Amino acid sequence: MSNETDFWIRPVACATCEDPRPATANPVYDSAFTPKRKEPPVAMPRRWMPLLIVLVVCVTTAATAQETGWVLQGEGGLVTALVLEPATPATLYAATARGIYKTTDGGRSWRNRGLGLEGRSVLSLAIDPRRPSTLFATTDTGGVFKSSDAGEHWISANNGLTARYVGAVAVDPHAPSTIYAGSESGRLFKSVDDGGLWVETTSPTTRICVTAITLDPVKAGTIYVGTNSEGVFKSVDGGAKWTHMTNGLKRGTVWNITIDGASSETVYAGTHEGFYRSANGGALWTPSNHGLTSINILSLVEDPKSPSTLFAGTAAGIFQSLDAGTSWRPVAPDLYATAVAMDPELTSTLYAGTHLGVLKTLDRGSRWSPLRLAARVDVEAPALPLLPVVEKRKAAERPQPVVPVVPQ
Fold first, then answer.
1. Cβ atoms of residues 223 and 238 within 8 Å
2. Percentage above 90 pLDDT, the chain
3. 343 pLDDT more than 70
4. Which of 209, 308, 190, 204 is nearest to 246 (CA)?
5. Is the CA virtual torsion 284, 290, 295, 301 positive or negative?
6. How far is Cα of residue 345 from the mean position of the Cα atoms in its chain?
7. Residue 63 is inside which H or E element, if any?
8. Strand, coil or helix: what is 184?
9. From CA 23, how far away is CA 5, in angstroms rounded?
10. C-beta of residue 165 within 8 angstroms of C-beta of residue 49
11. What is the pLDDT of residues 18-30, one digit of tens each?
12. For all residues of the chain together, what is the average pLDDT?
């Protein structure tokens, strides 16, 4: 595929938090790219804050499809999160800016399952591993919503939750009735009764947005929190006290934190500044971006049967590593891959949430097929429209990604 053209993708910062990057930084493209011009900072709508992006649509030519083996077509839209039902991985939930879509047949058909979520942009999604009919969704303006019937109906679960912009949610694997929700201003809330009542914990910091929450599956009470400008915080006592874990880690946005299934001391962080690995529970981080054409790592998933195998969704496509992140190779280029999920039993099957909807592969990324979220939706749920096309530019003319200036 020719390198003369590329897509312009501009990251965006949370407008209620501190500017996470200097105005001249370029997190998406490598240092070899030097733009000819810069555009002035712009303010973005609040509903797109959690992903820090301006969306684009990739125009794929026949030559590209032949070369890469993947095809994009049909209707779709931005997917912010993908969650598989653990015991029934053919059941998949896709969170979008227009609610939640559900499939029970591995993506062949979808239905919009958002009764109670009408008009909400869903930012993150979590499923109770022991009671998969229980799910939690966070939104940009409505706080936390809960479903107790496998996503059929959703009710507000905000008792005690004073924030309405909630960017991350996680279910405690050791105590499934315990839920954590992270919001703007670095606030972390905890519920011990399935979201019935929230209590604010000792917040890791008060100046930034919480962008990721991950709980250690082995060590009860150990929590990692990613933020939009201050890196990673860690608690070993359920959130009572926090340690700033930034040794070797740049303080950019942390989109996701993944704990190695073979050793919980090994932790991976996908950030706005690249992929990082820690072998000692976050005490020291090492960057590892060899082979990546974008260091904006939006999503990560580890193969549970082969923990050294990782897949990363980035601002320039999906990449695979067979050596625990030491090196990477592209398996689906030219995508804005915001979410990646893997079938825990058939690990050759992966799903990718992108700016065009959901893609699926049955062979670890050799070939991807589009899954139309608009197929067989309920009558009251309109099909997701294609997002506006952003013009394709020559690499030499591509403008510098701009981080909006946050009003003081």
1. yes
2. 56
3. yes
4. 204
5. negative
6. 22
7. helix 62-68
8. helix
9. 24
10. yes
11. 433 333 333 322 2
12. 76
Tokens 């340690």 -> residue: 243
Q: Which residues on adjacent β-strands are paired with residue 189?
A: 181, 200
Which candidate, 110, 190, 195, places its Cα nearest to that of 157? 195
Backbone angles phi, psi at 50, to 5 degrees: -65, -25
Residue 323 identity (one-letter amino acid): D
Cα gap 63→69, rounded to integer Å:
10
Residue 185 amino acid letter? S
Q: How many CA atoms lie within 13 A of 223 on its CB side?
A: 32
Percent of the chain with pLDDT over 70: 73
| pTM for the whole structure | 0.76
Helices (H) and strands (E) in the chain, counts: 1, 32
With cut-offs at 50, 70 and 90, classify the pLDDT of residue 374: low
Q: Which helix (H) or strand (E) holds 68?
A: helix 62-68
Cα 86 to chain centroid distance, Å, stands at 19
Tokens of 139: 């939104």
Q: Which of 226, 233, 307 has the alpha carbon at shortest distance from 269?
A: 226
Q: Which two tokens stand for residue 13?
A: 């910062």
* Residue-level length of the chain: 408
pLDDT of residue 357: 86
User: What average pLDDT does this structure show over 328-357?
Assistant: 92
DSSP string of 361-391, one letter each residue: ESSTTSSEEEE-TTTT--TTSPPPPPPPPPP
